[in-house]
Amino acid sequence: MGSASLADILIALSMCWCLYHKKTGFANLNSGLLTSVLATATLICFVVVPTTLIWQAFFWPLGKCYVNSLLAMLNNRDVLRERSANSNSDSSFGMTSLHIARQSEIRQSKRSPATGTMNFRDHILNALNALPGVREFHVHVLVTAPAKDNSLYPYASSRPRLYAQDILVLLSEQANPDSPRVLVSAIEACLYHAPATDCAILYVSKVDSTGQGLTPSPTATLVRAFTRWYADPATRPLTARHLWIQLFARAQGQYLFPNSSDYPGKRPLSDARLCAWWRRVLGQVGADVQEAMGSEGRVDMYYLLPGHNKLEAQQVMGCTSFLSNSPPPATMPPWVYGHPYSQTSIPLPCPPPEGLHNLGHYIPSFEDDPKNRFMDEIAFTDTPISPRKRARTSATRDGVDLEPREGEKEREREKGARPRGELSKVCPDEFWERMSFRQECVTGAVTGFFSLGVSLPEHRMPSQRPPPLAPQPGQVPRAMNRRILSSLLTGVEFSTTERARKATDLIESAVRGLCEGLAPKLPGPKSKNQCPEGAQGSLTPLLPQTPPKRTVGLPAIDDASPNPFDEPEATLETYKAYIFGSINVSNPPLLPKGSGGTTTSEGVSGTIPEDKVEVHVLAVRKKKKRPVA
């Protein structure tokens, strides 16, 4: 018992020292002094009068004090992670260690406290501040640290070394301080960086809205601020001279918010209007970036509607021109109808070697992209054949050298570098011409491929560039991003206002809980109530979905070089400074229709504006019958 009491005293003293030097606003409660006094009294009573039970009067409350001290240390874990110099000046941390901070406590300034410059989150909030009306926006920005990736060009002769980052942006809205939050828009994207060619690709995978926000919808402003941040070299978080923004526009009722298509207030844009919407948004981004870079920079914009020639595509875009009432900016680069894989003005991330034509070096394989399946069919055209006989060796088994001949080794090496299937015969122009006959493009709906390229001269780039795998402040682990995205797609739904509010609270609490180190209990997938496009009882057929990538038959590439940098850890400080932010918008309301103001819808879904162009329906003139004589 004496040794146990002595150990208790040592533990209590260590807690006392730790809590005193890393203390919060509760210096009297979290000092550990009471625990040390009880442990000392227990040891003294046991040594002086061991035959009595007086020492037990101090021994039993000691366990409760240990529990309280342990809870105090756990509540102080974010302060304990800091350096001693910072922790001493942060002694007024207060109640925010014990409960979730209030709304007024977690609003951050428009500048990052670490660097003094505007970060990604503040850039989005600054853009949302210009929307009309009175409301409050809350944004969560999850950007993972760079990780090695070799799946973007699976059919390249020599796969380039790429580094990928997953991006998820969640935007919620609050009509007034007393009303609950509700998610209104979300963006899922992936950023690929190829340092060998000084190129990067931003693939916008999904953009969705719930239709439960106020008018106008903030989706267009959110997407414009999102793409502008990466397109502008002044704000781009990676040092790459050339950047390509690519996306595939396909109209569906829902993408990121399950069952949101069942909400009566959500009115998704049709296929033609969605393509026109993307062209307008990317065109404004291209004009802004061109104006910011000046004459030295170059911005090229391409769009292609499979199954339509240039004149037909212009007619499709022209019939939806009322979505934009303002004239295009003077600095907007011209749109080119076609694909960017035959141009040479802005380099591609994976150019083919000299003297070798391989379609796998031009067409990237993104997730949920119809080009993947077509590339698989072009690459895997060989029929199964019987296995060949074993090649002879240069010597018999009794000899010394059992290695293959040099000529056979060279032939095997050349065969491995040869493009698969018909990849060496199909050019990019033929690929896109045949793409018009694919299932995703001939179902009657208009689909579109959009590309925006930005290039900057070499002398405008910084001389010192950080390592491509070096994490930046505010980045989160990839597992955290995938966990939140999986919960959003399979664990919640947005069919009604009440369910959307519960889903918003669950997702936002999960993001904060993961940053605090607490593992929130996220819901599992719902197989009965959650369906993809089209409900179980619906008579309409399901829309075509892009199959997953084919990896059978592709050579496995072992990553021999490990990541020299540790994966970033999401903390409460990261959550407050980079991930979460809110802003109160107090602007004049949107002018009603017919008052001379704009009436355009700002989102992918929401209230669709009426066509201002007066349509005259011509009646068929019936031929009068002559009376029979």
Can you walk through the features of this model?
The protein has 629 residues and is α+β, with helices and mostly antiparallel strands. Among the domains are: 2-97, no CATH class; 121-146 and 165-348 and 364-373 and 438-536 and 564-585, no CATH class. The chain is built from 15 helices and ten strands. It has helices at 2-21, 33-48, 54-75, 77-80, 84-89, 120-128, 219-231, 271-293, 310-318, 371-379, 406-417, 428-435, 478-490, 497-516, 572-579; strands at residues 134-143, 147-149, 162-174, 182-194, 199-209, 242-249, 298-304, 335-337, 448-455, 580-586. Strands 1, 2, 3, 4, 5, 6, 7, 8, 9 and 10 form a ten-stranded mixed sheet that branches. Helix 7 (219-231) links the parallel strand 5 and strand 6 (242-249). The protein is globular and about 130 Å long.
